[in-house]
Design brief:
The protein has about 650 residues and is an alpha/beta fold. Strand 20 and strand 21 form a beta hairpin. Helix 6 runs parallel beside helix 7, helix 8 packs across helix 9 and helix 11 packs parallel to helix 14. The protein is globular. The N terminus is likely disordered. The chain binds calcium ion. The site of calcium ion has 9 residues, from strand 12.
């Protein structure tokens, strides 16, 4: 699956280079460092450093008083140590000193870089800083605990960009565009409705999935007064928060403390946090921090010696090589242990190898048994790794407790993300019924499904419902409301609102892990811009005034979330439950999918549940299974207690009935 934002980036970052034959040695021969002290080890008495640079002939440490500019205070030689590493140390308490390394390789001095393991950096991440992490903790950090969370399928994820959340004037938030803007409470839109943190609580989602919040390259942190925007899929320092989201990007400590403050506040308010991580490539290629210390090692090469580019961003990392695998694992553990992060979303996970992903899953679950892991089961181009080793959607069954996004349900609901005019089930396209059923059963095995009719996958790719992320839109491509406008240009707004609500109804009633894109609950638009990765705030910012304008949609989505949380029948934990307790109605009406759930067998207070989706433009009358049905929702509205004409489904609508 091509990810178009990266195609756009390619021209910027693509820089082929040919390594010399001396560098094209078998990387399997490079030593593997087995210790756990790469980078800085700090104490008030001593700061010790260990750098992995097995091909270097000489390595130097340069110390500075500032994070940018000026000359080095001093330059120290590192000593060659075991397993390809180099070490040195400074006595005394050196907190606040900035530093870089440079390696001499093949008789040439490489560029000065912070070590890839740096946990604290100065402005724009060009130099690392000696830090006492204890001193970065906000008050009460030791008592910080993640909210209770039982099963992966209980998750209702909300994908949010830090800047988008608060930068619009209507947010009522003081610290706009900053991590701590999301710690403010009692913030209101001009119409008096809750925004930011209070809105997230009111909506009822379980996890906030933040777009990249590690230190990325594209925004100039030295110019906070200049409006700048980027999604952040261009990693620079993997183990440091992004500086432009901090109130001060220069001092090193502020970004750490403020990101921790955000996480602590989320936890106190019942919200878990997922980080979007991009280990599949680095923003810089030849000049990257990895490549300046160990040229060629961390990346896959093409047969002619150039950088392989399966990410369409100029390079692809080599997770199957021991020191890259170790880097990913230690980086992820660091975010869990130091920042109390509750989950990760792996960008272009298909670039990584299955073995690495399973080691990561095993190790992270040891630290945090209820951690949530999921990723994109695709790449953005051909990678230098055989397909049977890639963490792709089609290999999802071989991933241990790692979910993949279902592009089948995403595009089945609203039409292909690549064919802008294509409609989907919710916008009146017949023939998508089987794909919607595939979404309902979270891409698992179900005896009633005809898998030959599924949009992309022709077989169940998930063995368990928690292997599937159920969604219909994300930051990539058009948001749902724009997609409906583009693919249904002649449809009245009221119809498109119904389509939008039907689409979200399918997401929130289907099995698997639910995923919503921020603002969809009040019809967020990006003004038709598809690839908004560097678009201005006028396109990306969430306009909180829409909440009142589309309060009907908001109230409906909020009620569906509450229903999903109260009724385990929508959150089955095992594929066997799902194949025996979901019964699809035999209907041949195009654009209609309906099914019953045996709630009694699942311990649900609703003994029987019936869900009907009408994606067609006409009113449809269905035959309901026997019994006295109560209404929960009808015609895309919660209408509790209504009992008449429940078998008549309005165009583009969802109906949810139950028997107690
Ligand atoms: Ca940055």
């Amino acid at each position: 699956m091509i990810n178009w934002k990266r195609i756009t980036l390619t021209s910027t970052y693509l820089s082929w280079f040919f390594v010399t034959s001396a560098q094209r040695i078998d990387v399997a021969l490079y030593p593997v460092y087995t210790g756990n002290d790469l980078g800085l080890t700090y104490s008030p008495e001593r700061s010790s450093f260990r750098i992995y640079a097995p091909t270097a002939k000489q390595v130097q440490l340069l110390l500075y008083t500032e994070g940018s500019g000026g000359s080095p205070l001093t330059t120290l030689e590192l000593n060659k140590a075991e397993q390809g590493t180099w070490t040195t140390s400074l006595t005394g308490d050196r907190v606040g000193i900035f530093y870089t390394f440079r390696a001499n390789i093949d008789g040439k001095w490489m560029a000065e870089v912070p070590d890839p393991y740096a946990t604290c950096v100065g402005v724009n991440g060009k130099r690392a800083m000696i830090v006492n992490l204890e001193a970065t903790n906000p008050s009460g950090w030791k008592q910080d605990r993640s909210p209770a969370f039982a099963h992966a399928t209980d998750a209702i994820l909300y994908e949010l960009h830090v800047r988008d959340a608060s930068i619009h004037a209507s947010s009522g938030i003081q610290k706009k565009g900053k991590f701590i803007g999301l710690t403010e409470s009692k913030t209101k839109s001009p119409q008096g409705l809750s925004t930011g943190l209070d809105h997230l609580k009111e909506l009822g989602i379980t996890h906030v999935h933040l777009l990249p919040s590690y230190d990325y390259n594209s925004v100039d942190e030295s110019k906070p007064e200049v409006p700048q925007f980027n999604w952040g899929y261009d990693p620079l320092n993997y183990n440091v928060p992004e500086g432009s989201y901090a109130t001060n990007a220069k001092d090193g400590v502020t970004r750490i403390r403020e990101f921790k403050q955000l996480i602590k506040t989320f936890h106190e308010n019942g919200l878990r946090i997922v980080m979007d991580v991009v280990y599949n490539h680095t923003a810089l290629t030849q000049d990257s921090y990895f490549n300046q210390l160990v040229p060629g090692y961390y990346y896959r090469q093409t047969n002619d010696g150039g950088f392989s580019n399966g990410t369409a961003c100029g390079n692809e990392t080599a997770s199957e090589r021991q020191m890259m695998r170790k880097f990913m694992l230690e980086s992820l553990k660091y975010w869990v242990e130091e920042y109390h992060v509750d989950g990760f979303r792996f960008d272009l996970m298909g670039v990584h190898d299955i073995e690495t992903m399973n080691i990561i899953s095993e190790e992270l679950h040891k630290i945090k048994p209820d951690i949530l892991l999921y990723g994109e089961g695709w790449t953005a181009g051909p990678v230098q790794l055989s397909e049977d080793k890639q963490a792709l959607k089609k290999n999802a069954a071989r991933l241990t407790d790692i979910a993949v996004f279902s592009d089948d349900i995403r595009d089945g609901i609203k039409g292909s993300v690549f064919d802008h005019a294509e409609r989907g089930f919710a916008s009146g396209l017949a023939g998508m019924e089987e794909t919607i059923k595939f979404g309902v059963v979270a891409a698992c095995q179900h005896p009633q499904l005809d898998y030959t009719k599924i949009k992309y996958a022709k077989a169940p790719f998930a063995t368990q419902p928690h292997h599937t992320v159920t969604y219909c839109e994300c930051h990539d491509n058009h948001v749902l409301w724009d997609k409906l406008a583009i693919s249904m240009p002649d449809a009245p707004e009221e119809d498109r609102m119904n389509m939008h609500q039907l689409a979200l109804s399918i997401v929130l009633t289907s099995q698997g892990i639910s995923f919503l894109h921020a603002g969809t609950e009040f019809l967020r638009s990006k003004k038709g811009v598809e690839n908004s990765y560097n678009a201005p705030d006028s396109i990306n910012a969430i306009d909180w005034s829409l909440k009142e304008k589309n309060i009907k949609v908001f109230n409906y989505v909020k009620a569906l979330i509450k229903m999903r949380k109260e009724h385990p029948a929508f959150r089955m934990t095992d594929a066997k439950q799902l194949s025996t307790n979901i019964q699809f109605d035999k209907t041949s009406t195009p654009g209609v999918v309906s099914y019953g759930i045996n709630g009694a067998a699942l311990g649900d207070s609703w003994k029987k549940i019936w869900v009907g989706y009408n994606g067609s433009a006409g009113q449809q009358t269905v035959t309901l299974p026997a019994g006295n049905w109560q209404v929960f929702a009808k015609d895309n509205e919660v209408q509790k207690g209504k009992t008449k004409k429940v078998s008549v489904l309005k165009p583009y609508s969802c109906t949810i009935l139950y028997q107690q």
